[in-house]
Amino acid sequence: MFVTRFEPQLLTAHNPGPMTGPGNNTYLLIGGEGSAGLIDAGVGESAHLEELTWTLDARSARLERVLVTHGHRDHAGGAPAIAAAFPEAVFTKYPWPEEDAQYGVAWRSAGDGDVIVAAEEPLTALHTPGHSPDHMAFWHRPSGTIFTGDLVAQGSSVMIHWSRGGDLAQYLASLERLLTLAPRRLLPAHGPAIDDPRTVLLGYLEHRRQRERQVLDALRAGHDTVQAIAESIYDGLAPALMPAARENVRAHLEKLRTDGRAANEDGRWTL
Ligand SMILES: [Zn+2]
Question: What order do you get walking across the sheet with 35-39 strand by strand?
């Protein structure tokens, strides 16, 4: 039986752009005793901080915890601004030392399976790498809700940044792991809430299988560089998104190489 009163409040990070869509979602939890927790830190936009402050004040609540799904700027970049405004808040994420230091806050590290209490609610940290090595989702078991960060975003696919620690095989395993939890609702960092998690997660897995077939077809057709394969698959893509598309293709190629289905010699890819 799921508890249904769990209603995180969506606060947009006010950072619209080609990679963030209308902007990142952050989620505020406020407990009955006035303790509050925030999932993801946004980028430090003043409108985000104002809404956060205003919402907390309206409920006479205090921000005690900020849980960050991963170290990408649109999720962690707002940490210093939030730390300055709410000095008592504790910032928690899975460690990614090369990235974490730039934000200048005293991160408290969390690992897979840790249960973190935020706003009087238990959130189980799930280390779900693939999109980034440090990615965590936060599972609120009593309501069947998972804060999924950048694992899924309804209506679009998720980029795997190979050159920044992205790993497609790990990403697929992370999606499979979410499926096994049979969640009732996913709250992603981009796009609307997902009320049919199983359908969406299976759709993501199928999308990746389809993409893998496209990469194999491109190799078969003689495209042998990341650039050529990306152009053959993402024909007509907005130029601003092309670097991310190349990262995705590279992630697929690296998975195929690990699987023994593709080879790379001096930057030339073959079957
Ligand atoms: Zn990300």
Answer: 9-12, 25-30, 35-39, 62-67, 90-93, 107-109
pLDDT at 3: 55
Ligand 1 centroid distance, CA of 70 (Å):
7
The reply to whether 205 falls in a domain is: no
* 150 in the same domain as 87: yes
Mean pLDDT of the chain: 95
Q: What's the CA-to-centroid distance between 53 and ligand 1, angstroms?
A: 25
Q: Please, how many CA atoms are within 13 Å of residue 201, restricted to the half-sphere of its CB?
A: 25
Whether 218 maps to a domain, the answer reads yes
Give the Å distance between the CA of 149 and the centre of ligand 1: 7
- CA–centroid distance, 21 to ligand 1, in Å, is 13
Do 107 and 190 lie in one domain? The reply is yes
Cα 117 to ligand 1 centre (Å): 24
pLDDT at 15: 93
